[in-house]
Amino acid sequence: MERITMALAGNPNSGKTTLFNSLTGSRQHVGNYPGVTVEKKEGTCRFEETEVNVVDLPGTYSLTAYSAEELVARNYILEEKPDVVVDVIDASNLERNLYLALQVMELGVPVVLAFNMSDMARARGIEFDIELLSSLLGVPIIPTVGNKNTGVQEMLGAAVRAARAGRPARVPDIHYGEEINQAFERIKDRLRECHTTTDDREARWMAIKLLEDDKEVAADIRSDELHETVRLERARIESVFGDSAETVIADRRYGFISGACQEAVRSTVEARHTRSDRIDEIVIHRLWGLPIFLGLMYLVFWLTFTIGTPPMHWLDSLFGWLGQTIGGLWPKGSDSILKSLLVDGIIGGVGGVMVFLPNIVLLFLAIAALEDSGYMARAAFLMDRVMHKIGLHGKSFIPMLTGLGCTVPAIMATRTLESQRDRLTTMLVLPLVSCGARLTIYTLIIPAFFPEQWRAPMLWIIYVIGMGLAVLCAKLLRSTIFKGETVPFVMELPPYRMPTLKGMAIHMWERAGLYLKKAGTIILAVSVILWALTSFPKVQDTDPHASPAERQAAELSYTLAGRIGHAMEPIIKPLGFDWRIGTAMIGAFAAKEVFVAQMGIVYSIGEADGESTPLRDKLRAAYSPLVGFCIMLFMLISAPCMATIAVTRRESNSWKWALFQLGGLTVMAYVLTLAVYQLGTLFGIGIK
Amino acid sequence: MPLSAVPPGRSVVLRRIRSGCVLGLHLAAMGFVPGVPLDVRQNTGNGPVIVGLKGTRVMLGRGMAEKMSVE
Question: What is the C-alpha separation between A85 and A400, in angstroms, rounded?
Fold first, then answer.
């Protein structure tokens, strides 16, 4: 069977992801961390006898070296050489979208244009002569409607044909003008002289990029003469046109596009934004904008808790029943090691984490809705003033919102930030934004210690503390290590769109699936290790006069985990933590959810008769609400999980920052928790 | 006059952008080329400015808006 690779390129908000989803459905996967690259979303689909491997490139406006995402997209096309590139174009915003299309075509690869959301464009009074436009641009154009699955098969067919046809006969004939064409020719001559390339089309592309002063392309050129030629040509163009070469080139490209559009597109009304604009009048209003934003955030947490609680209880009972059934296979009072491993280690540990899946799913769903509707960009707008005060800009706020789901993709989302200083600052403070895994800890602790009416506010408070600390740390970093001017910031506000159920489901599943996978792998392994640590070595002869509770405590203290915990106790005692919490904290480094798993294990081991009281009741009996709060505070701030450290190391390209993040946050967690616990004890707040 | 000084509701034409090369290219890709008409949609005197440009809505940080001269 024939196999081809098709890359999807396109502007942000062009509906590329929706199209990708309707092409590949559930047959897609996101590369996994740590270690494996994630920027590439891949999926497969079939067209007749051809298997098509679809790669979703990051959404970009052009193929310059402006941000890491643009580089990823460009390098993929240049280096991996997909058989065909489908450029997804928002048909109601043709001119700007065609700018990227021109650049993709200039790379000389087979290109098909998908005029997406063409129904919307028509409804808004834009009429295009597809045939004429297609012949002007020299590429096939297929109108599609991604969320209704219209035109998707036709697009696939055109892509397969283009891939079979191979390299297009011509690249679009943009009239750069005599001056600029001469400059291209002179640079091309030099390129040939130093044997950088023999391919004429590639040489032309490189000449364009060099004239645009593209740092990436220039860095690969070693010839000083060539650099000198480029410098001279740039200076000449600037003196002729009174504008930099890149501005003139961009201007010519737009000229070409508007020329083509004038002939082939008729727009009766400009109505793309009316509804969006009306919504924006309220949502980003200077007075109500911020309260609306905070209210929405509160709603997200409230939903996570109220809707998530009943299914959480069902899962809880399910795992309780499972534990008892499996435990029942052994005679009553048996101290079989296998039974303990299955019931206390695996069901207690993995089950304890799985129980929170409903909450996680709901949180991810809410974030997906915010992302897909276009609200995220408005949040960036609203937060820009605040972010500006701490030396970052509104765009840094989007990774922070993503961080509510999981810190790892949030750190990767910092790729959209252009300045390295902004990027590092955002990356380093991101673990302070509570992720879904930490939500697991909060959902265990909060109902155990706080009355009903305090639960949602408490959760909100914890999140706000995290955000507040992130802001403070960012400010601190920006005024010390990452001192420097704030870079200017530009961002598109996409029109609001109704998120589709399918899109949200896919988004949510991507992340919930990762949570489940983690439960089945890392958490399972760590649970078994922690179970072994909390079970061995066994006490040989116990005091026959001791009560069962005393015996259980003595047995636990004797195990390896008990010993490690006891060794840690002098350090963590001032925070209000005992050795049990200490062992759970070590486990939490593998993944934050393990904290819950380990507490489950520690408190269930030694229950000979399988009569299990819920973990929350045991916690309430063992600790004060103040300790409960301190646990949450410490887990909020302290050592980010292994995956976070790994991704920080990869994205910052140095161990230095990853270790700085680990050390800095742990020290801060210790100091703050110490202060809260000691002050709380002193003033008698939440002691019992 | 800088874009940051234009009150909301006014339409202007972009003349020049004072910016580094890479940023200039990015702005050009988003449609900010000399001669393009811009409608200022929101400008509260501090914080970002929102402009309408070729049927899209773009927000510009205050610093960026100060670097764009318009007519």
Answer: 32
